[in-house]
């Protein structure tokens, strides 16, 4: 893995500015770090967004479920009953379809659901 | 107390840019440490190469085998896919930090149920099992299999691993 600079963003605006200055976002790490290890990704700067408050929220109302971009698969799986009122079958399916289901599910799940179910475009990805 | 790489003489490391280092504070198994690391150092490498905690194993190093499982602030994570810098200020628990004078009940259950063969995956299995039980996902053998499915055992000791997790869960009830 090539060397890179590390920055920790504490606000979404700070993260945005850092990305504009040529950085790559690091959330769960399940994609960026393994790609960086094999040389596919070669970030000069990595911006850690995992400590930006409020981005991991999960909420459900009459209009559907909102899954924060930093909500991990393990939390979504734990809260599957909360999201089942609308898109639960899709979300729960995306979580349990993952071969790493039983372990580290740090991948932000909204993106994960959309990856596994491209047709689930009505899922909001914050 | 600051630690330095134990393998600093490794020729592969001589090519690294020694100027790009950051200082981080880690709390591993309740012990605070100050490390000077390159930003690309994973939590797994920090544990093994900087702190000498080699109980956490490097298997695939790509987040697929579960051998490197540790707890960060409680939940289980794959330490090969987490930068050491990301763990700064957070409580990290490794297999060395589970038991005190005696074995943790999960470790004891693995021994009693013969839940391993070569043992390489065992620390990760044990860390996952502790979390699996704490999460309330050890209610049945099927549930245990599901929530332990991220930890691979090439020796195929899965029946005994399930039995060990079930025993430890029952002891804890």
Beginning-to-end CA distance, first to last residue of chain B: 40 Å
Shape of chain A: globular
Kindly state the percentage of residues in helix of chain A: 25-40%
| Estimated radius of gyration of chain A | 15 Å
Gist of the model:
The complex is a heterodimer of chains A (126) and B (173). Chain A has 126 residues and is α/β, with parallel strands linked by helices. Chain A is built from 6 helices and 6 strands; from the N terminus they run βαβαβββααααβ.
What does this structure look like?
The complex is a heterodimer of chains A (126) and B (173). Chain A is of the alpha/beta class. Chain A starts with a strand and ends with a strand. Chain A has helices at residues 12-20, 32-37, 73-78, 80-83, 88-96, 109-116, and strands at 5-8, 24-26, 45-48, 58-61, 64-67, 124-125. Chain B has 173 residues and is of the alpha/beta class. Helix content of chain B is 29%, strand content 15%. Chain B contains 5 helices and 6 strands. Chain B has helices at residues 43-50, 105-112, 122-134, 141-147, 158-172, and strands at 2-3, 22-28, 31-37, 69-72, 76-78, 91-93. A 6-stranded mixed sheet of chain B has the order 1-3-2-6-4-5, sandwiched between helices. In chain B, a hairpin with a 3-residue loop joins β4 (69-72) and β5 (76-78). The longest helix of chain B has 15 residues, at 158-172. The termini of chain B are far apart. The model of chain B is unreliable at 1-17 (pLDDT under 50). The interface between A and B is medium-sized, with 29 and 33 residues.
């Amino acid at each position: 893995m090539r060397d890179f600079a590390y920055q920790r963003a504490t606000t979404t605006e700070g993260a945005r500015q850092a990305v504009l200055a040529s950085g790559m976002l690091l959330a769960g790490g399940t994609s960026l770090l393994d790609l960086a290890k094999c040389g596919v990704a070669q970030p000069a700067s990595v911006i850690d967004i995992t400590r930006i408050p409020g981005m991991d929220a999960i909420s459900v109302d009459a209009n559907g479920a909102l899954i924060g971009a930093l909500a991990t698969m393990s939390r979504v799986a734990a809260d599957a009953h909360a999201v089942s009122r609308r898109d639960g079958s899709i979300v729960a399916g995306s979580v349990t379809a993952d071969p790493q289901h039983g372990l580290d599910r740090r991948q932000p799940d909204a993106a994960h659901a959309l990856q596994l179910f491209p047709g689930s475009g009505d899922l909001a990805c914050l | 107390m600051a630690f330095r790489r134990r393998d600093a003489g490794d020729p592969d490391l001589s090519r690294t840019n020694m100027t790009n280092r950051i200082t981080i504070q880690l709390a591993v198994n309740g012990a605070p440490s100050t490390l000077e690391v390159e930003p690309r150092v994973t939590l797994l490498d920090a544990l093994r190469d900087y702190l000498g905690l080699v109980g956490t194993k490097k298997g695939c190093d790509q987040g697929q085998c579960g051998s490197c499982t540790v707890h960060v602030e409680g939940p289980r994570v794959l330490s090969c896919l987490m930068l050491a810098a990301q763990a700064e200020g957070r409580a990290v628990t490794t297999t060395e930090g589970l038991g005190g004078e005696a074995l943790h009940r999960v470790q004891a259950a693995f021994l009693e149920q013969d839940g391993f063969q070569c043992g390489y995956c065992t620390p990760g299995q044990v860390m996952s099992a502790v979390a699996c039980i704490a999460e309330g996902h050890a209610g049945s053998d099927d549930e245990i299999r599901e929530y332990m499915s991220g930890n691979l055992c090439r020796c195929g000791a899965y029946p005994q691993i399930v039995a060990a997790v079930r025993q430890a869960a029952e002891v804890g009830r």
